[in-house]
Amino acid sequence: MAGKSVCTCCPDAEETKAVPLTTADLATTLAPAEQLWSSSRDRAVRLRMEGSGPGSETPATVHQMFLETVERFGDHPALVSKKDGQTVTLTWRQYYEQCCAAAKSFLKLGLERFHGVGILGFNSAEWFISDIGCILAGGLAAGIYTTNSPEACHYVAANCEANVLVVEDQKQLGKILKVKDQLPHLKAIVQYKGELQQKAPFLYTWDEFMKAGEDVPNEQLEAVIGSLRANECCTLIYTSGTTGNPKGVMLSHDNITWTARTVSKIINPNCGEEVLVSYLPLSHVAAQMIDVWCCMSLAGTTHFAQPDALKGSLANTLRETRPTGFLGVPRVWEKMQERMKAVGAKASPLRRRVADWAKSIGLEYGYSVMNGENVVPWGFMLSNSLVFKKVRAALGLDRCKLCCTGAAPITKETLEYFMSLNIPVKELYGMSESSGPHTISINEYRIGSCGKVIPGCKTKLENPDTDGNGEICFWGRHVFMGYLNMPDKTAESLDESGWLHSGDLGKHDEDDFLYITGRIKELIITAGGENIPPVPIEDAVKSEVPIISNAMLIGDKLKFLSMLLTLKCVMDDDGDPTDDLSPEALDFCRQHGVRATKVSEIIANKEPAIYKAIQEGVERVNATSTSNAQKVQKWVILDRDFTVGGGELGPTLKLRRPIVVKMYQERIDEMYAAAPERQ
Predict the structure, then answer these.
(1) Is the N end or the C end of the chain the one with fewer CB atoms within 10 Å?
(2) Do you know which InterPro entries this protein is assigned to (predicted)?
């Protein structure tokens, strides 16, 4: 840099309006690399560069992408938080400066190159600043799920050789203190919310941490930032493994910046317009890619939800912030649907008739738009003003141009429910190993499909069957570097040509939309050798019997299929299931002449009307089966619903099948102890 020596990341006080280093000054350089993959923290990889098109874009580091946004939108709001009832906003320039200050503090606390900074807490400005500050200081940012046990936290911190851990509060700090003595690389712990309840030389409050690096020379941080290379690792995403220990997915700067920029251009070609709500776990790739990186590329504004978002407060945050885009995992959309149905059930008969009429028109219009016909049916404008606009406003989605879902399968019933309200929910598909998205539905979509491959990437279906179902394989700049310290696992996922094998089964339609048809590891192979994907059968049973919350198909290596069922119930403030039936479940009971109000009453009495209704629903699903092997012969209702806290669901509310089988092995054995009744 010519001229006056000013820190690229912390401008002098009198120059707070200027970011002295321009992107033009930053020549993009790559570290030497021969292979497309690596399982070593400090080994670069060869990028999957294309000769033209989106795959040929110039590689960039996280710092370069950040700087571009600050140069163009420095005074635009970046992060909006609620602190003690007050709204606190950071502009893009302030956010950048705080990330650089955090980077200096990490260096001061002894963060070594390619060592981890583990972040354990709910979404917040401090989470974002810790993550990016770590990357600018040459570390590896690693999110840790807040639901993790002390042992699971230890695994991640040890695996990434974390020098610093950033925790939200005393509760999360307690987990780390239990395992601190088993973490030889750990030098400091930072708590970003509340006062420390104990003093120790290695413990810092957020304010103490942010001041710790004030005496680190600007040149020292500049040198580190200048040494960052786009094809080196900067982030670790730990898979929420349903079996065994999680794997540390190594993402390079280029994985993050290329994916964020490519997706952002499709979301909105204009920067500075998007408003998002951050509430899904940032240790999961979907939330991190959208909330942190796409928002950075788009110069958007991120509002932080309250920690109890998934227990009910999310609705208030959405109404307050009115986001322009919203990503919800299937369970979030299902819960919204359940609440809206419960409210609708209490409406007057006239209101219900009007709503049903409007929804039938909304569904007709939704399919017309989806199919590219854009025919506006008679009555749509009236339905829009009487019903749709009011529903969108009540949900806080009146400004929302893009509603998405991903991370787990969603039912057609839920998608059609929202489409009938003129809220098309579009599916995304990808994995941690593809930096998040691989296929997206934005401008073009089909119900039941997770969209088309993102520009610059390729899909290959390996070993397709007669119906065209094959293992989905990915190629592109979004494909990860490898699993940290796991060369064998890396070789299982990436073949010799560098294609990523997803483990998912899928097929394309004539318009190249991708449909997920199962997961190889989830396939139930019966004793008779028939391969059965469980999700379609589970979804069908839930759709036929609205009192059912979760359904899990059993039958691997067994003579017939059976099913574990749970009933819809009220969740307490901690997200744990109570014994009280949910409003929708109560409504189902009333329709069948049953007065029960508790799950335990239905199970204890084997409530005949409810058991008969479930059996009839199962029989209706069985009637659509293509073979006897696909028919559910037995089922059992479990005492409590599945939850994250209970262990049955992962952090993104995905069913952890092997764990559920272990937990309920006795109940499963009972179903198979006697021969099934003939259906």
Answers:
(1) N
(2) AMP-binding_CS, AMP-dep_synth/lig_dom, ANL_N_sf
The single residue listed with the structure tokens 């009972």 is: 670
Domain with residue 638: its CATH number is 3.30.300.30
CA distances from 168 to 128, 143, 205, 430 (A): 12, 12, 10, 29
For residue 655, what are the contacts with CB-CB under 8 A and spacing of at least 6? Answer: 408, 550, 552, 642, 648, 649
Burial class from Cβ neighbours inside 10 Å (0-12, 13-18, 19+) for residue 56 reads: exposed
Length of the chain: 679
Nearest alpha-carbon partner for 255 in 102, 43, 504, 55: 55
Domain shared by 211 and 96, yes or no? yes
Percent with pLDDT over 90 in the chain: 69
Closest CA to 653 of 309, 325, 156, 249: 309
How far is residue 489's CA from residue 679's CA, in Å, rounded to a whole number?
A: 44
Rg of the chain, C-alpha, whole Å = 26
Instruction: For residues 470 and 537, state if they share a domain.
Output: no
Question: 548-564 burial, b if ≥16 CB within 10 A, otherwise e?
Answer: bbbbbbbbbebebbbbb
pTM: 0.84
Answer yes or no: is 85 within a domain: no
Q: Residue 178: in which H helix or E strand, if any?
A: helix 170-179
Query: Pick from 475, 490, 519: which residue ends a domain?
Result: 519
Of 254, 260, 263, residue with least CA distance to 440: 263
Q: Which of 264-268, 438-442, 623-627 has the lowest mean pLDDT?
A: 623-627
CATH number at residue 106: 3.40.50.980
Q: 118 lies in a domain?
A: yes
Q: Are residues 114 and 230 in the same domain?
A: yes
Q: How many domains does the chain have?
A: 3
